[in-house]
Specification:
Layout lengths: L1 H15 L1 H37 L5 E6 L9 H4 L3 H10 L4 E6 L6 E6 L2 E10 L11 E5 L4 H6 L3 E5 H8 L8 E6 L2 E12 L4 H5 L5 E6 H5 L7 E6 L5 H15 L7 E5 H44 L1 H9 L4 H37 L8 H27 L3 H6 L2
Parallel strand pairs: 4-9, 6-8
Antiparallel strand pairs: 1-10, 1-11, 2-10, 3-4, 5-8, 7-8
Length: about 400
Amino acid sequence: MLFLENIKLALSAIRANKMRSFLTMLGIIIGISSVITITSIGASAQAMINKQFESLEGGYMVLMINWRNTESIDYYADLFSWDDIEALKNRFPSYIRYIELMNLGNSSTTTKVGRLEATLSLYGAGADYNKFDKSIQIIHGRMINQGDVDAGRENIVIDVRAARQLFNKENVVGATLPATIYGDEKDLTIVGVYETPPSIFSGLMVETSYTCYVPISLMLGSDARSAYIEIFASDKDDPIVQAEAFLSYITKVKNKPADFYMYQSADEQISQVNTVLGTLSIALGAIAAISLLVGGIGIMNIMLVSVTERTREIGIRKSLGARTKDILTQFLIEAMILSSIGGIIGMALGMSLAGLGMSAFGIGVVIQPIVIVVTVIFSAGVGMFFGIFPARKAAKLDPIEALRYE
């Protein structure tokens, strides 16, 4: 009963000084809302990036030259060729679902249709690449097929946004695009139009070029060499075990030192991205949490003022039999309620800001329940910590001196 009475007294005191109470809670509100907003945005971005990686079929990896440990490269001996692709296919028929040389060089070209112009980033793909990269959703025509790759046909699959930019319509299958591929002028025939699901990058970056897909043989030529091999391995086996097997075999075939080649897998990239985003969210959240300390100091200051203003009230309560711990509890509860109300308001504000921020980019917001619970408990803890000194000061007042106070 006494505890409930203290809560009623605390709420009565807060209502009696609404503006002062709100200003007291403002630091807590700002701190809590900042922490929740930042951690929610970080969690939402992390979930969106993970979703982007999930669009790749399991077992995605890239074999490459380890540039950090390689001083010189023999173009014909050290870089990967079509023969290396065939050797890996024949050696690991049950592991490899897709394998092609990969072009990561300067593959941008400017194309013009009438007066309309766009920059295309050409990506060399093997047959049915969209079956493995689920972010490529064909909406008109088809994807690059095996016939295109075998014959090195001058075909292209373009982004629907590039189609709108150049032709003012989406279905442009059969149209041609002039393009320059490594110095050679070509007229590429559009065989497909694709679109990709929106991502966090869609809203953050201004589109300067459009990714388009052409046969990998067209990009690299019949006697091609590349420093990269793109692989979709078995999604039923351990990707690390498979990658190590591919790496060991190709190193032996090309008679190179053990660290001459390396691999990167989608799982590793996801782990690295999650680590970076998680660390960044924690760091920014910790910086935002500093404002909670400022809010706590504000609560302590106002509670000290409140003790001074209510000195006579404290004297009357003590003279009527209130114990020291009763006075201590009363003011401690009042500080905790101030802080908790600020925490609840900050929680609601933080979730609203995170939701608005993510919706602006078309991304679903991710609210972490553990963050909500921790921040509200922490705000109450701040109130208790910074309320102890004013509460002890009130509890130690001499009742006779308090009654004399004017």
